[in-house]
Amino acid sequence: MTQSVIEGTQISSVELKIRPARVKDTHVQDRIFWMILRFISWSMIAIMAAIFILLLKLSFTSLAKFGFGFFSGTDWNPPLDIFGALPFIYGTVLSSLLAILVAAPVSIGVALFLTQLAPKPLRTTVAFLVEMLAAIPSVVYGLWGVFILVPFMQTFVQPKLIHFLGPGSTFAALAAKLLTALVYPFILIFQVFRLNFDGWSLEQTSQMMMHFSNQIFAGPAYGVGLLTASLILAIMITPTISSISREVFASVPSQEREAALALGATRWEMIRLSVIASCKSGILGAVILGLGRALGETMAVTMVIGNRNEIKPAILAPAQSMASVIANEYNEASGLHLSSLVGIGLSLLVISLLVNSIARFTIWRVERVKK
Fold first, then answer.
1. Are 294 and 96 in contact (CB under 8 A)?
2. Residue 210 falls within a domain, yes or no?
3. DSSP letters spanning 295-364
4. Across the strands, what pairs with 82?
5. Is 90 found in the same domain as 123?
6. Three-class secondary structure of residue 142 per DSSP
7. pLDDT for 259-305, tens place per residue?
8. Range of the domain at 310
9. Which of 13, 54, 175, 195 is most buried as measured by Cβ atoms within 10 A of its Cβ?
């Protein structure tokens, strides 16, 4: 009896000695795993900082010579060593915004159809086809744009836009009146504070807005141009926005949808109140990610945008983006020309960071209001 108790005591003491060692080993493993993850996280920040410093170093020559005028200049003349990046910034931003205006409604509609309305067999097939669009290389989109989309735009779409929405059309007149109503109050405010708008009358503002609205759909039908590039970008970013939106919509609890239907809501009211309203931040994040891809797209845009260094309000006119000018001229550049191209790359990086920062801030505000 005593021996059994002693043996049991010995076994218990051995177990007590072993258990703390196992707990200690587990803590060491957790700490190593935590350190690895921390190293990876800080590495991402270090890589971004290294890229920014490298671009800043390589573009220092052009930035030192032109200063802020590099970003506001409109002349790009490599033989004379005159470089201004504003036409490329304009082309990049405008083409990306037009692409978002086209792709966002389509992508969100596709995501809603696949998660809320489509039968299961059709849902699987359509989701697979939409996601396959993301696997197509950029140069293939460019070739399709050159041989299919550009002739179609030149023959059928752009002539109709110029006829019905171009100079002298009802659309141009209404757009001029709307722009005048939006702009003139700001001119009055600037005149009160004497910010170089003295002498601007309502008639002058109206004439300026009429000239601007007449130029939106003006010009010959080249086929290539900002609108064509925007349509290519819209097709390319649709899978990104649609896939993320679909995941966001699928995360809405079924109880919320069923509760809305049980209270008498129609199918559309249920989607609007229970799905879309609760997923605003996710939808915004999907759209911003799509915008981020559109800003940096290179080959497809280069092949259909027209590659002309001009700033025009006409969305049918040829233009050039930051990525396209780098792709076209980098191989033959040297000296100040090369430094200026790297400066355009730095501008693209900064714009992408600003867009993502604004997106994060907006999502934070939406979530804060929701709470």
1. yes
2. no
3. HH--HHHHHHSB------S-TTS-B--HHHHHHHHGGG--THHHHHHHHHHHHHHHHHHHHHHHHHHHHH
4. 77
5. yes
6. helix
7. 888 888 888 889 998 898 888 888 988 898 899 889 988 899 999 99
8. 70-166+217-370
9. 175
